[in-house]
Amino acid sequence: MKVRNIFYIVFCVLVFQENSVFSQVYKPLLDDFNEWHITSCNFGCIQDKYYTDGDTIVNGTSFKILDGYHYISRTFLLREDVTEQKVYLTFIDPFTGPREWLLYDFSLQVNDVINVFNPVSPFPLNSGDFQLDSIVPEVLVDGNDYRHFYLHALDTVQSGGVKNIVWIESVGSTSLINAPGGEADVNGAGKLSCFFKDGELHYSQMDSVATCDPIYFPNSINETTSFEIEVFPTMTHSEINIQSENEILEIKIFDLNGKLIKRFKVGNEKTTMLNVEELNEGIYILDVRLSNLHHKKVKFIKMN
User: Fold this and answer.
1) For each successive 10 residues of the chain (304 residues), what is the average pLDDT?
2) What's domain 220-302's superfamily in CATH?
3) Phi and psi (nearest 5°) for 88?
4) Residue 126 in contact with residue 158, Cβ under 8 Å?
5) Helix (H/G/I), strand (E/B), else coil: 268
6) Is the pTM of this model over 0.85?
7) Which residues of the chain form CATH 2.60.40.1930?
């Protein structure tokens, strides 16, 4: 085989591999429920929590309502154009009406430039132009690769001193969700420590926190407070029994960081037994889902 042909084959393989990485199917950011935990450590470490809290329609367009602490209120709305791989934030100003900003553009290619806005945040509203330096697939909690976008400010004066930012596909900024041009800094405005999708841990950076504990579990509005579900024992070496007045559809086991450890499909039985002998010693959360959409969460201790 001629040397020229060998070089051509190698070139084609490299191009194919590069395109296969960056032409992967887009993984959306907004699920039914999203929850961001931001850690700041100015006077001891504290966590602020932001979350999508319901849906609304404004001028015929569907949005997720963003709620949380400090400067976030239910006048913040998120929407995502999955086809264009873009995420927008709309602020409902009581005096001037709605105003929309492009937060994230995950269709960017390396060397592209984007004007970044940080609506109602500690960072400059218009942070100026940022250039995309690289896109790196990195594994998140669920074991799958997600594109990490690394950008730098072309004008650090306009950006408020911020030099570098990171966006994560399916997560958003490593700073505040509404500050794509924000610097992830626990000694500043804060840093993303935990991010949950529909009650399950999706991203974690726990250098400044001990645990990731969600404030929301799926269908928590229907969580039963009666004795409709009985779970026993709550301290066990090997087995847990579950009894219910309704059919049991599914059982999930989470660790205290909100990470899904195991999932069991029960099959419409009212009584079942779980073997948890292979779990490590520790405290876990059992989430039982019934046919009437009720849930019950019970902490149990796995002993050796």
Assistant:
1) 51 47 78 90 84 83 83 78 96 81 97 96 95 96 92 97 97 96 92 89 84 66 59 89 87 78 84 92 83 74 86
2) Macroglobulin (MG2) domain (2.60.40.1930)
3) -120, 155
4) yes
5) strand
6) no
7) 220-302
